[in-house]
Each structure stands twice: as structure tokens, then as C-alpha cells.
Amino acid sequence: MSQRGPYAKGVAKREEILGRALEIVARQGYRGASVQVIADAVGLSQAGLLHYFGSKEELFTAILRKRDELDHLSRAAPSDPRDARDAFVQVIAHNSEVPGLVELFSRLAVEAADPEHPAHAYFLERGEVLRETIVATLAQLRRPPALPPETLARIVQAAADGLQLQWLLDPTVDMAATMEALLNALAQEGHP
């Protein structure tokens, strides 16, 4: 049964805001995606926009959650470890097409080191899910990895996050090719 009334309208407006905000951040970057610009794009005042999110930081955290949701929905969970590796590299390749979202992710990741930041829980949860996925993929391999799977998952996550920062500093960095090279090297050593 579908929701009706003010609650359903609020949910729909929030989704509209997130959809437009994703487009704006991807195209214009973190600095170009002010609360005012996003509010204007959806026909609200700044106060009206923040009614749905509480603060700019909560809005930007919701944008990253929405991006993750859309990335997850657009890719079926692969059952073969090689397919999982390829899907991971494809996500990294896609990130080079949305520099504003990569910038937002990197900026919020640093700010979210503060446990009081609205994005703190998001980054902890996201990292845990990513590492669990990597560990589950490693469990499907014929040969166990030389490093503990949890350690290897943290290394792959650190490489992916670090590549994004390097790419923001130098857009000639090929994040996907570099990650693929790392994963191939690990595969030769009995890893993913």
C-alpha cells in the first residue's frame, strides 16, 4: 500500500531534492553546490530545504548515501570473485565521471573523523560494508590470501580512498587502472 498525505509528499520532496543535489554536486562540485543553489533548483528557500535535512552537513551526507544507493541498485551483486573485482573497478572508473561527488566524499571523509560530525556514522558503516564485501569475496577464492582477509580489505579500501585523493590533486591519475593493477598483483600473490 502506498503512502498518502503530508508524509508521502515529504518523502517525495526529499527524494526530489536528493536527485537534483546529486546532479548539481556531480556537475558543479562541492563549492558550486551551495545550499542556496540546491534550494533554488528545487524551488525552496534555504530554510525550506534544510527543513528536510537539518543542516548542510546532513544534506551532503544524505547525498552520499543516495549515491551509494543508486550505485548499488545499478549493479547486481556478483557471485564470482573475478566479477566482484571487475564491479569494484567499474565503480572506481565511474567516479572519474563525477568529480564533484568524489570531492564531496573526500572532504566529508576528513570532516567526519570528528565523532560529532553528521557523516561520522555514514563513513563507519560504509567502510564496514565495503570491507565485509571484500572479505566475503576473499572467502570464495580457492587459495586463501597470505594476509588476514580483514587486513587485506582495509588495504584495498585505503588504496581506493587514497586514489580518489590523488586523482583530485592530479586528474591524469587513472584510478581504475591503478586499482586494477593492484588487484591483479594481489591475485598473483594468492589474493583477490
UniProtKB/TrEMBL annotation:
MF terms in GO: DNA binding
Keywords (A to Z) from UniProt: DNA-binding, Transcription, Transcription regulation
The keyword DNA-binding appears for this protein: yes
Record-annotated HTH tetR-type domain positions: 11-71
InterPro entries, per the entry: Homeodomain-like_sf, HTH_TetR, Tet_transcr_reg_TetR-rel_C_sf
Location of the DNA-binding region in this protein: 34-53
Name listed for the protein in its UniProt record: TetR family transcriptional regulator
SUPFAM superfamilies (UniProt xref): Homeodomain-like (SSF46689), Tetracyclin repressor-like, C-terminal domain (SSF48498)
